[in-house]
Amino acid sequence: MTIQQLLKTAPVTTLLLASFIGLFIMQILTGVDANNPSTEALLKWGANALPFTMGDDPWRLVSSAFLHIGLMHLLFNGFAMYFFGQIAEPMFGSAKFLALFLLAAIGGNLLNSYVTWQSILDGTGQPGLSAGASGGIMGIGAALLIAALFKISVNGMVLNLKSLIFIMGINLVYGFAVPGIDNAGHIGGAITGLVIALAFAIGYRQRLAVALQNAAIQQQRTFNTYQTNYSYSAHDNPSYNSQYSGQSHDQHDNHSSYDATPIEQSPHFEMDSKEQDTTFANNETNVSDINANNSADSVNTINSSLNNGTTHNSIEPKALKKPSIIWQLLPWLAMLLIGIVFVWWWQDIHQQLLQVLKAIE
């Protein structure tokens, strides 16, 4: 995929990649080592460090997600962002995708700070620093995992659940196997992405159910447009009766002439002409009476049903349904709730840090 195609398909992903690369170039231009930047340089450019992040610089929770420690770190995260972003952004939408990345990055940094702080209180750890988009990228990967689990499609294609599980598993195992990897940041970002994606998937399922119901209703409406409405009234009966009676007499005449021919021309008929005429007349009278009675009964039956003014109409389909606004807002509500939890979490660690510093003084 070219840069122009990526910009059109996933503009936020393109801008995030550009910001990663642009920040790295700015570091190099100011004299930062491209492969082994110093601690002072990383702190200057916004790395996550417990005394600063939990003190007076909470903005480091975000800035550290755009900072990378060396060229290889940048290339690895850049490739992961390119791979996940071009799929996740069209699926979730650019605004939700950006919010997902930022909240996952913040969640990873907060969990890292919390684990570090607890290890300091236990006397088993010391302050350190972290940087990189890994937390946000793991959040995106976890969100795609949920999307594959709920079979949410992207441009008609459903994600491969096994492949995503394999990729996420490799990243987690690699983090525990190689020293210096921010495992807490990866896990915190992944958990954040899972929660946000669950809210998105639930809302998606509810909206899809309503869309399927509306499609069925629309199909019923389309079918009913081809049905004819039949309506009869009492003033139509005379002409209908006349026509029906005429057809009945015609059929009777045809029947009489048809029956007379084989009887008169039959060589085996031994009766004299007078008896033939008498017998035929009696038969003709009986047939006429039967046909007349049947015709009268049929006409009366039809007329009785027509005189009721019956109208045969198709059944009106149900009205189209609208998806509840709550399902459209559910992902945003979930992200708002996560943001509130993150603010409370930061304040809790911040207050604990201040109390410890005050006790030391």
What is the level 1 CATH name?
Mainly Alpha
Classify the helix fraction into a percent range.
Answer: over 70%
- Mean pLDDT figure: 77
The span between the termini is 58 Å
Second rung of CATH, namely the architecture: Up-down Bundle
Q: Which percent band covers the strand fraction? A: under 5%
Q: Give me the strand/helix succession.
A: HHHEHHHHEHEEHHEHHEH
Name the shape in a single word: globular
Count structural domains.
Answer: 1
Which spans have pLDDT < 50 for at least 5 consecutive residues?
230-296, 301-314
CATH-defined superfamily: Rhomboid-like
Helices and strands: which structural class? Answer: mainly alpha
From the 3D structure, determine the CATH topology. Answer: Rhomboid-like fold
Which labels suit this protein?
mainly alpha; Rhomboid-like fold; two-stranded antiparallel sheet; 6 strands
Please specify the SSE layout and strand pairing.
Blueprint: H1 3-9, H2 11-29, H3 39-44, E1 48-49, H4 50-53, H5 60-63, H6 71-92, H7 94-122, E2 129-130, H8 134-149, E3 153-154, E4 157-158, H9 161-177, H10 183-224, E5 230-231, H11 237-265, H12 273-306, E6 311-312, H13 325-360
Antiparallel strand pairs: 1-2, 3-4, 5-6
